[in-house]
Structures
1.
Amino acid sequence: MKALVYHGPGRHSWQDVPEPYLQDPEDAVVRVDAVTICGTDLHILKGDVPEVEPGRILGHEAVGTVLQVGAGVRDITVGDRVLVSCISPCGRCGYCRQGRYGQCRNGGGWILGHLIDGTQAEQVRVPFADRSLYRLPAEIAGESALLLADVLPTSYEVGVLNGRVRPGDTVAVVGCGPIGLAAIMGARLFSAGHILAVDPAASRLDMAKQLGADRCAESPEAAISAVAELTDGLGADVVIEAGGVPESFELCAGLVRPGGHLANVGVHGRPVTLHLERLWIADVTITTGLVDTSSTPRLLTMVGAGQLDPTQLITHRFGLPEMLEAYDVFGQAADTGALKVALFNTVRA
Ligand SMILES: [Zn+2]
Ligand SMILES: [Zn+2]
């Protein structure tokens, strides 16, 4: 079969690889019907995630059809149309028993396209299949489900829930890529009073407005003055960092009100200056995190009910063999305006 293989920093190819097979009784093998590329995959390609070894198939977000299940898989069956979650929980360790699947200590967590071969392939082996796969109801299209593998749960759990968005809050979202835009959708669910979207790209701010932001800022200075105006100089109740660079984090720290929450979602590849000398006295709560995907069942329900429509985040569609072109389009998002790219196998999800 074909797969996207990482060959060390800056090198990747779409090439022939052996088909995956069941290695453990709890495994499933899934035919990939739709898959997407994540900002995290670009970090891996840059060499920012050194535990990813050359030869690894990348990808941790997909929708597919179950081809094989191991003898220990009880709930998922061959032929099921499933969401492949970015997190694979063992279900038995102390963290998993608390729903903290991202921190699994028993060989699970974020392993797909990281520590084991991932989803950017015609087929993928998925460990702990009963907990890593979600059977999809017919009313949920493959495109919607694709955003539930990582983008929606990450923005919802690490951004909106960690940030404790409450009705009437002024929420600032810094960085309006897919995660920031999905955080705006999530903040709307909690009836935020004002949502300020901050990003240098006008096209992303347009999308932010469509998804529920009522104010936009293209620069840090504009963000600071917008928050001051909205809050009578106090600061935002909740600031969600979805930029992943030192400048965006430091802007967030300057936007949050005393007693407010700064929820960092961005993946940082460089150290960030933390101005504790200003933040400590203001009772600011800062949270960080990797997604657990404990919210996935709830998000699936909301998408199925039409309460959330994440498909607007998909800007480009390709066939699976066009993987390298899709990487180029996604990697040059500043020029192409790409948010999420979706790739479909011959069998449309
Ligand atoms: Zn991802
Ligand atoms: Zn575990």
2.
Amino acid sequence: MHPSYTTKATGHYILKNVRLETGFEYDQQDVIRTKTDLFCIEIDDGNIKTIQTNRPNAEAIDAEGRLLLPACRDMHVHLDKTLYGLPWQAHSPKLKTVKEMIAHEQKIIPMLLKTSTARAEQLIGLLQRYGTTFARTHVNIDPTSGLESLEHLMQALVNKNHTFEAELVAFPQHGLYYTDSAPLMREAAKVKNIGFIGGVDPYTIDGAIEKTIDFTVQLALDNNKGMDIHLHEPGESGIKTIHYLIEKAVENPQLQGKTFISHAFALAYLSSKETEEIAEKLADAQVGIATSVPFRGTIMPIPTLKKYGVQVLVGNDNVQDHWSTFGSGNMLQKANLIAQLYGYETEFELSRALQFATQPMLPLDDEGNQQWPKVGDEATAILVDASCSAEAVSRIATVKALINKGNLSAAHQIPFEGLA
Ligand SMILES: [Zn+2]
């Protein structure tokens, strides 16, 4: 009796009939097809132990020819204050500015906190069903929720133990000084699970770019954390804030590679020359951009940022909450959106676009050499209904199973509907 991949598995097991990409097929210089083959993959204690020629009759979990890809990662999401699990609610026409949103949150957070642990788990379940095993989640640190949002989210992650990982950003959503959040941020920064110090629109919310960023930088340095600042402001104050953050990263090399600006909408309004200049500066200072890939008449210059080597992270941001209801939870859908927006349509371009879902691992390098999975790699992957990466992005492939550090779950068995 061969257990099907629709069951759970952990520890030591073998997957057979696993499809892996093995190279590109060319017509002169052009990639016209992705070559694949079937393999047996042995997983032991969270890692890939062997990758062997397929043995269809092996005593093993049958992947039935499905494609194995690196698992997806969501690099900007808010797991702590979702409305997911509550009745449908579209965005309110009364909530237009960030300050109006803050006032609204001060009213609803006490209600949300009552069930936020269970609903964070549900939202994680949704992300998992779409093949995500890792997220960078911002978590509100504000005088209304105190550290409770953080505590509830950490409990949800403990409850999801061994199937989902997250890095946490302490997020002063209601302003550092606009509300009295600075003392709470100092407390949150000491929490081991916090990996990044967050922020929001230093100029429009706190009325002071330098003072707010200086506090954030010092908190990050004192506690050996990274930074990930929400910056919605377009125009002069937005650009000034980006330059100031670049300056701080140049002054403090330990922040390089650990400093991110989320949204950075100001970049979408620059001329192409200005965009190239700032992209070069961001790359040199190793300051990354995290984006939910918005449109609203403005398109983020992702190709230019990538061209200069800026680290671009992608996330769902809001999955059904009072800020937005457009996050689907599906990172393959984000990669598909990027491919559509920027015209990535050939086999090669689509295969590269998968990096925006897996962030950044791809099965094949640009020359078509197999680079994932390798023996010894952590067994964190998804099985999808697609023949290759390009098809997975273009058709937004259905995820059938996900494996996090060797723990395999069938996607349809992950609970995500209804409160526990
Ligand atoms: Zn956000």
